[in-house]
Amino acid sequence: MLTSFRIKYEWEIVHMRSEVRELARTIGFDEVDQARIVQSLSELARNVIQHADEGIIEVEQIETEEKRGLRFIVRDLGPGIENLTEFMMHMKNKSIGETSGLQQVQLLMDELTIHKLEQGTSVEVTKWLKQVPLGSE
């Protein structure tokens, strides 16, 4: 894990945004992907404050043989999503004009998974660095 942020108040989101943007820049994300990452985490952090009062965001750099990126695990300390299966079906069936914040996150990031915990919910999102084709550097 690279770092973590405790989220309880709106102003903590501002601090987290600037730290995460700098981290993404350092790892090699371009400005567009930095903005996508920061927007996604802002939405997830606001969800924590709105629905659970507080939570934790963990940031880790990930690497496979083919790619590198950042993974963010957002855990709220609230009651969690009551019926996760129903929630996911509802999220999947919304039209473009009525997208939820989580749907926006799903569009901006490369991977999104949601897990119900004993207390709260965990949302895990990943953004991969773009692959640079050989010879185009």
The N- to C-terminal Cα distance equals 30 Å
Global shape? globular
Count, helices: 4
CATH superfamily: Histidine kinase-like ATPase, C-terminal domain
Q: Strand fraction band?
A: 25-35%
CATH topology: Heat Shock Protein 90
Largest sheet: 5 strands, antiparallel
Which CATH architecture?
A: 2-Layer Sandwich
Please give the share of residues in helix.
Answer: 40-55%
Number of domains: 1
Strand order, main sheet: write it out. Answer: 1-2-3-5-4
Arithmetic mean pLDDT:
86
Can you tell me the CATH class? Alpha Beta
What is the element string, with H for helices and E for strands? EHHEEHHEE
**Radius of gyration from the alpha-carbon trace, in angstroms:** 15 Å
Structural class: alpha+beta
Which runs of at least 5 residues are low in confidence (pLDDT < 50)? none
State the total count of DSSP E strands: 5
List the helices and strands and how they pair.
Blueprint: E1 3-7, H1 10-27, H2 31-52, E2 55-63, E3 68-76, H3 84-93, H4 101-108, E4 111-116, E5 121-128
Antiparallel strand pairs: 1-2, 2-3, 3-5, 4-5
Helix pairs in contact: 1-2, 2-4
Describe the structure.
Strands 1-2-3-5-4 form a five-stranded antiparallel β-sheet, covered by helices on one side. The chain has four helices and five strands, in the order E-H-H-E-E-H-H-E-E. With 137 residues, the chain is an alpha+beta fold. It has a single domain, classed as 2-Layer Sandwich (Heat Shock Protein 90), CATH 3.30.565.
